[in-house]
Amino acid sequence: MATVGGSADFECPICMGPVQRAVVSRCCRHRFCTNCIAAVQQTAGQGGASGRCPYCRSERFAFDSVREPPPQLPPQQPIRRPPPQASARIYRCQAAQCRFTGTENDFLDHLVNRHRRELLDNHHLLFRQQQPPQQYEDPPDRNPRLAENKKTYCGGPLNGPPCDCCSGVCGPQDGCNCVHCMTIDLANFQVTHGNSLVNKFGRVASLSSENGHFYCAAIMGLAELGGSGDSIAYCGPIDGPNCEACQALDVQCGSRYASLM
Ligand SMILES: [Zn+2]
Ligand SMILES: [Zn+2]
Ligand SMILES: [Zn+2]
Ligand SMILES: [Zn+2]
Ligand SMILES: [Zn+2]
Ligand SMILES: [Zn+2]
Ligand SMILES: [Zn+2]
């Protein structure tokens, strides 16, 4: 049989073309197109040529279908491989109500497919500077000291979620202190009731049971309270918003200082 390039095995002896949807004969293991065999057999059934093998003429002609080799990818299409750092670790999705668990690549696919909006909206949180550790531990060299504002600072990491005002360090520069130092503040300021904290201006601030805000009764320039003009106002429930230091406590009382409330 004339062949080009030595591909005789894949050339159908009936149509002389490349085999389409191959079947293989049991007699001589030759490949034929399914359609070509069907056409030959139909002819035989109509009293034409006998049911012999079209290649070796065996009378016991029978054939089996052959699984096609997988189609080859176009050469310009790169083969996808998992990134080399992929590990066998199993990840559990932390999204509310989501029960997904899977390996690294599956988890990444899951995040992109199912939590696309959250990823896009919150990705900046991944790159926050100086995020404090999740578990708060006293720094080994913790040495609480009184600052000018009469508050106590130890220089260790702030516990709880980061606040907008802070670099994450319990220190007088930003004014917020850790829960341990706040405990010392409460003792120093002789605060015994559970609805007060010492704000970062060094003033005792009490939580209003009526509106859920802290107030320290500080006399503040109105501008400092977010207003305008030269008049002054108190940080209190009847004078508009509370001061900046008390606004910080509004948030922190539910997280960093929750154990003191
Ligand atoms: Zn054929
Ligand atoms: Zn044959
Ligand atoms: Zn999920
Ligand atoms: Zn970005
Ligand atoms: Zn802060
Ligand atoms: Zn501290
Ligand atoms: Zn205040």
Automatic annotation (TrEMBL):
SMART domains: RING. Keywords: Metal-binding, Zinc, Zinc-finger. InterPro entries: Znf_C3HC4_RING-type, Znf_RING, Znf_RING/FYVE/PHD, Znf_RING_CS. PROSITE patterns: ZF_RING_1, ZF_RING_2. Residues 12-57 form the RING-type domain. One of its GO terms (molecular function) is zinc ion binding. The keyword Coiled coil does not apply. Signal peptide: none annotated. The keyword Ion transport does not apply. Pfam families: zf-C3HC4. This is RING-type domain-containing protein. The lineage of its organism: Eukaryota, Metazoa, Spiralia, Lophotrochozoa, Platyhelminthes.
